[in-house]
Amino acid sequence: MGPGKQGTPVDALVAKRIGLLVADTAQEPSGFGWNPSDLTQEKIEAFQIERFRNALSYVKENSNYYREHLQGIDSDAIRTMEDIKKIPYTTEQDLAGNEWRFQCVKASDVSRAVTIPTTGTRGKQKRLVYTMADQQKAIEFIHAGYLTMECKKGERMLIFMSGNLPGSIGDLVRQAVEPLGMEISVFGAVTDVRAAYERLLEFKPEIVEAIPWHAAALAAYGQQYGNPEKAFIRSVNLSADIVPDMVAERLRRLWGCTVHRHYGSTEMCIFGGVECIHQDGYHLRHSDILYEIPEPDETGQGEIVITTFAHEAMPLIRYKTGDIGRFVDTVCGCGANVRRLEKVWGRDSSMLRVGKEREKDGKSLQDGNAAFFLTELADAVYADDAVMDFDVEIVVDERKSDEKTETDGRLTVTVRTLPGVEADLELIRQEFYEIPGVKHAGDQIDIVWVQETFEAFPAGYNLKKKIGYAEG
Ligand SMILES: [Zn+2]
Known about the structure:
With about 475 residues, the chain is an alpha/beta fold. α7 (about 130-150) packs across α8 (about 170-175), α10 packs parallel to α11 and α12 (about 375-380) packs antiparallel against α13 (about 425-430). It is built from 14 helices and 20 strands.
């Protein structure tokens, strides 16, 4: 294996955690002196099965919820992946409002709690808690993620994420990169794009950390000055939401940088995986989390189910993430031999189903119906570099609160540009009708395109892009 074929620092950390590698990966950004083909899926699974078994005993002993939920299940009998498949799922509905029953540690051992809205039911929230050790494990992986981006001493990083509170994303990122000797500035989430852009030009970071929508807007904004930030930005890490291909493409083109996508969630304590420069799937946190796609379709695509077996405060057993993805089992361009996760298509709840005929199961489509992910719509919208932001709303004729994605409603897509700049709606429309789940439905889709001018992101609009629903 030639130079450069070293896998990624994330794989090296996984190898270290499962006992295959003793070198201190934290000190060695490149050339770990190991052969990434030693880290095989077989070795990872043997480790994961053992840890899954331990986690099962642990939650049955320490969590009131799992004691009841997993009653009658003998954790010692878990010996294979097939055995794991027999363990019942945990859902977001199980968790919401029930968190204290999931918690495995004393309140005094909880170092951070995060309350976020659930994706399924409106108005409901879920609360996740972590111990110091849980957060430390995440920080080590975030650190490895930045080593993957070849971050080094003397470089500057500008973080467009909230970082005021201890344990917030910006704060954990700061803790993870400080040992690298970088200069770090936490700007916070972008609301006023002009102010954020001015900070960018002033700080001149080599590395930018942002949510996809904010980074896309900043690059679009810079076009009026000829994108001078291209001179210093070397690499961008995008996280906290789905990353449309066209956003990554825009950044590579307008900023001349490399783009790394990150996959994670509050349930995982932020870090789940990150792409290497070859962009052939997220390199996953296999030593702390079991990732499954237990019910794949014929293409291998299906819902991602996670077990956070390394967590102390609130390990989740076979938790249904709602995220749709697919595994990649080929050898990555970086030399890694491990199972990776292909681009995440977003949540099942971020699938839009529109059209004139409605199927009862909401999935199989008749002529005239279209089904596509929000990320696919975003790819169409961001094909035009002038677009700063967009929104999508479905006006439903007949509201079904539990199945709000199943609709025969009208779609309104609002694209936003700077004052005085026209969006190329023709191009966007063309791209939209190229989406595989849209193509066959053609002009039968009831869709309205609206153009608005863009001043700022609304306050509180920080993270996930959502589909709006309105009653018609
Ligand atoms: Zn790779």
